[in-house]
TrEMBL record:
<dbReference type="GO" id="GO:0005794">
    <property type="term" value="C:Golgi apparatus"/>
</dbReference>
<keyword id="KW-0482">Metalloprotease</keyword>
<keyword id="KW-0865">Zymogen</keyword>
<keyword id="KW-0862">Zinc</keyword>
<dbReference type="GO" id="GO:0005764">
    <property type="term" value="C:lysosome"/>
</dbReference>
<protein>
    <recommendedName>
        <fullName>Carboxypeptidase Q</fullName>
    </recommendedName>
</protein>
<dbReference type="GO" id="GO:0005783">
    <property type="term" value="C:endoplasmic reticulum"/>
</dbReference>
<dbReference type="GO" id="GO:0004180">
    <property type="term" value="F:carboxypeptidase activity"/>
</dbReference>
<keyword id="KW-0732">Signal</keyword>
<keyword id="KW-0458">Lysosome</keyword>
<keyword id="KW-0964">Secreted</keyword>
<dbReference type="Pfam" id="PF04389">
    <property type="entry name" value="Peptidase_M28"/>
</dbReference>
<comment type="subunit">
    <text>Homodimer. The monomeric form is inactive while the homodimer is active.</text>
</comment>
<dbReference type="GO" id="GO:0006508">
    <property type="term" value="P:proteolysis"/>
</dbReference>
<dbReference type="GO" id="GO:0005615">
    <property type="term" value="C:extracellular space"/>
</dbReference>
<keyword id="KW-0325">Glycoprotein</keyword>
<dbReference type="GO" id="GO:0046872">
    <property type="term" value="F:metal ion binding"/>
</dbReference>
Length: 189
């Protein structure tokens, strides 16, 4: 059984793609690194996917889906961060009402950093195939007020990234992915 965390490599246009979507890739990598560094071993596999070809029609995600869809019942949740890694506010979630209640309970663990909101939809080009077929999905929600200042521009460089905000985003990703991966049962469909 798999809990998938992801971001995509997207510097196809101009700039370095540090925010779009290097930030999503970085926090997904960091989530797995933190879990390993803490010596935690969840019941399910935590899988990091760094998508490619998102801007070229999502061809990387489509190929991954085609290669793994026969095991769709083993995917517990698919998570994608693609709205920058600014100050996080919560998690977008797509799934059953029962699964949403579980995710809301998990998010209460993030009260110390004031990131507890669960929004009604999850977004993500790279996880859309899975969500369409009923796999619960989650997307990081953060303050996007400055997102389009840098999106697909020469300004999308590492200087946009705030290490403190990225750490908070990584904390959200780490807590949610680990708790779901270590629950007794998979999220209800």
């Amino acid at each position: 059984q798999v809990v998938l965390v992801s971001g995509h490599l997207d510097s196809w246009d101009v700039g370095q793609g540090a925010m779009d979507d290097g930030g999503g890739a970085f926090i997904s990598w960091e989530a797995l690194s933190l879990i390993k560094d803490l010596g935690l071993s969840p019941k399910r596999t935590l899988r990091l996917v760094l998508w490619t070809g998102e801007e070229q029609g999502g061809v990387g995600a489509q190929q991954y889906y085609q290669l793994h869809k026969e095991n769709i019942s083993n995917f517990d949740i698919v998570m994608e961060s693609d709205e920058g890694t600014f100050q996080p506010s919560g998690l977008g979630f797509a799934g059953s009402a029962e699964a949403r209640d579980i995710v809301k309970e998990i998010m209460t663990l993030l009260q110390p950093i004031n990131v507890t909101d669960v929004y009604d939809t999850a977004d993500g080009t790279d996880i859309a195939y899975w969500m369409r077929d009923g796999v619960p999905g989650a997307s990081l929600r953060s303050d996007i007020s400055k997102y389009f200042w840098f999106h697909h521009s020469q300004g999308d460089t590492m200087t946009v990234q705030d290490p403190n905000q990225m750490n908070l985003c990584a904390a959200v990703w780490t807590v949610v992915s680990y708790v779901i991966a270590d629950m007794e049962d998979m999220l209800p469909r």
